[in-house]
Amino acid sequence: MRxxxxxxxxxxxxxxxxxxxxxxxxxxxxxxxxxxLLAEARAKLDKGERSPAIDALETALxxxxxxxxxxxxxxxxxxxxxxxxxxxxxxxxxLELEPDDVAALAGQGDALVQKGAVTKARENLARIKRLCxxxxxxxxxxxxxxxxxxxxxxxxxxxxxxxxxxxEDAKPQPQ
Length: 175
Description:
With 175 residues, the chain is an all-alpha fold. It has a single domain, classed as Alpha Horseshoe (Serine Threonine Protein Phosphatase 5, Tetratricopeptide repeat). It is built from eight helices and no strands. The chain has helices spanning 4-23, 32-47, 50-63, 68-80, 84-97, 102-115, 118-131, 137-148. Residues 5-12, 14-25 and 154-158 have low confidence and may be disordered.
């Protein structure tokens, strides 16, 4: 009788763990409609049709939010549009589903370099090298992006140097 409360707690803990494991979907368990939409979106991205591809990817995630490939493809599309912050968020979503996704790590590393976060991109490169076999194309590509460095900073109009002979903004004279 003294062990009954401990046995009940252990049984409840075991039930909770088994429920969590069953709740996690693997890639093979993803809704086939979501995978079909992902395939259609990738074909559209290959044709350069970003807007319809993004719509298809968002629909794929509405059908099955565990579709990691859709998050990676959305990250790729955001990066191609020059939106590295948005891309990093999509890659992070993919990595929450599968922390060892090499494609998501590489894409996130590329987006981090675009944002200027080269140190974090190097961390991603180190993880990819630990996960991937020696001639890993993602590691080679990310290393090249890191070596190239972030794009030059965009300079605002206010910060641009004055050109010789440029006319200053005329201020109206009081009359």
